[in-house]
């Protein structure tokens, strides 16, 4: 196994907490109705299209046409997005920054809408410490499409065999391995430290 030189971080649920339930537990107090809303209206798949580059006005219009009674709640998804990302994971951020200080080439690869990523960057300055980032909403590709990993590889001049990817989603980890990166699934910061150590990365 090649020695790791490049380390690529996912952002949501790895470096920054993300939970749409946070504002909607207030906006839709009834648990059953809220479950319906996330399963059939503002679904994960619907939100993923914004990560792929669809604009929020386009996304809202398409969904309101199908669910007019939920118009205000559909618009609220973007309006209250800031409440869905209340804090960073300080322990993981410490690992992220320690790796940079130790001289590893740290970049980020994220499924993120372009506009909300700009907000996140203002709120979480540590995101600017990495050498760079590939944002799915800016290039209209999303993980685990092999094309987004290939794009990131070329954009940042990575040696695939010497690249480690850290992501919370099993499918995204599998996608990274499929193009020749090494990859680990993020569970928590303690497990990540153990995974890094097993790969010969001491910080």
Tags for this entry?
alpha/beta; Rossmann fold; elongated
The major pleated sheet works out as: 5 strands, parallel
Helix fraction by DSSP (H/I, runs of at least 4): 40-55%
What is the count of DSSP helices, taking H or I runs of 4+ residues?
A: 12
- CATH class identity of the largest domain: Alpha Beta
Identify the CATH architecture of the largest domain: 3-Layer(aba) Sandwich
Q: Looking across the biggest beta sheet, what order are the strands in?
A: 3-2-1-4-5
CATH third-tier fold name of the largest domain = Rossmann fold
Uncertain residue segments? none
List the helices and strands in order: EHHHHHHHEHEHHEHEH
**Count of distinct structural domains:** 2
> What average pLDDT do the residues reach?
97
- Provide the structure class: alpha/beta
The tally of strands reads 5
- The fraction of residues assigned to DSSP E strands is 5-15%
Radius of gyration from CA coordinates = 18 Å
Distance between the termini: 19 Å
Could you state the oligomeric state of the chains shown?
Answer: single chain
- What does the overall shape look like? elongated
CATH superfamily of the largest domain: HAD superfamily/HAD-like
């Amino acid at each position: 196994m090649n020695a790791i030189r490049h380390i690529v971080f996912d952002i949501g649920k790895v470096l920054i907490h993300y939970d749409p339930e946070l504002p909607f537990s207030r906006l839709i107090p009834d648990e059953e109705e809220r479950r319906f809303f996330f399963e059939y209206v503002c679904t994960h798949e619907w939100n993923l299209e914004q990560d792929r580059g669809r604009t929020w006005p386009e996304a809202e219009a398409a969904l309101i046409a199908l669910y007019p009674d939920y118009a205000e709640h559909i618009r609220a998804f973007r309006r209250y997005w800031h409440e869905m990302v209340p804090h960073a994971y300080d322990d993981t951020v410490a690992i992220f920054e320690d790796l940079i200080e130790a001289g590893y080439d740290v970049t980020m690869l994220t499924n993120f809408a372009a506009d909300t990523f700009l907000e996140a960057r203002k709120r979480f300055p540590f995101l600017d410490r990495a050498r760079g980032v590939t944002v799915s909403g800016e290039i209209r590709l999303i993980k685990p499409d092999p094309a987004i990993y290939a794009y990131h590889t070329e954009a940042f001049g990575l040696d695939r065999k010497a690249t480690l990817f850290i992501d919370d989603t099993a499918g995204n980890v599998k996608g990274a391995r499929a193009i020749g990166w090494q990859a680990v699934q993020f569970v928590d910061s303690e497990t990540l430290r153990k995974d890094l150590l097993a790969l010969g990365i001491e910080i």
